[in-house]
Amino acid sequence: MKTIIINASPRKNWNTAQLLKETQKGVQSLEVQTEYIELYDLNFTGCHSCLACKLKNGKHPGCVWKDDLSPLIEKILKAKSLIIGTPIYFGEPTVPFRALMERLVFCTMPYEEGTYFNGRVNTGFIYTMNAPKNYYDENLKPYLTNIENLFKMALHGETCSYASCDTLQVNNYSMYDMAYFNEEHKKQVRETQFPKDIQEAFNLGVKLGKQ
Ligand SMILES: Cc1cc2nc3c(=O)[nH]c(=O)nc-3n(C[C@H](O)[C@H](O)[C@H](O)COP(=O)(O)O)c2cc1C
Fold it and tell me: d(Cα 150, Cα 98) in Å, to the nearest integer?
């Protein structure tokens, strides 16, 4: 069984991706197979509310909508564990993250007692954001925990998360209209805190690989 690692950032080599690649190394250190997926390379939408996933004589669990997400959902439901990394955009995970969540979570649940999914998939979340850690703790964490709980309800596994805060958004702030940010401070956080975040991302991979 594999660990599926999903990058829900459009940038393939920036903060979220760098952390996810370390998480992947953590999982692989336990000789667990992994598959790394760039969510922005796939062609899909959120739930179309076709309700086919809840048909009495339907195939459960599964999302039958024909796009790139349905086979990924099938893979996730057969995985050992799932790791998703997302930047925070306007206080939320990215739109593709949300689309995946709608489709994955909805297709595991009938609108009545019970579940269509009898397996168990542990899920890890990596968040990256401009906001400092105290803002994340006070304002974002409660909302993101609710999202994590949806995965817990759907996939019956444990969840864990790590937030990398105050990230470096661009290499050269002087090229952009970004005067709200202090480049010196951002570079210092990058040099002193980000290596710790990288280590925490690796540890999260080891934790999920062991479970
Ligand atoms: C459209 C957009 C909206 C953003 N909104 C927020 C936000 O609400 N809060 C925040 O802390 N950072 C916000 N950011 C910053 C990113 O979350 C941050 O730079 C993140 O580390 C980027 O991840 P990446 O390097 O993997 O692309 C936003 C960035 C973009 C492009």
Answer: 11
- The residues lining ligand 1, judged by C-beta closer than 6 Å to any ligand atom, are 9, 11, 14-17, 87-91, 128-131, 167, 169
Count of H-run helices and E-run strands, the chain: 7, 6
State the number of CA atoms in the 13 A half-sphere of 25 facing the CB. 12
Residue 211 has pLDDT above 90, yes or no: no
pLDDT tens for residues 5-47? 999 999 999 999 999 999 999 999 999 999 999 999 999 999 9
The correct CATH number of 2-210 out of 3.40.50.2000, 3.40.50.360, 3.40.710.10, 3.40.190.10 is: 3.40.50.360
User: Measured in angstroms, how far is the CA atom of residue 154 from the centroid of ligand 1?
Assistant: 27
pTM of the model: 0.98
Domain boundaries, the chain: 2-210
Task: Taking residues 183-187, report their average pLDDT.
Answer: 97
In ligand 1, the atom with minimum distance to the C-alpha of 18 is 26
Compute, in angstroms, the gap from residue 209 CA to the centroid of ligand 1: 28
Structure tokens at 66: 């024909």
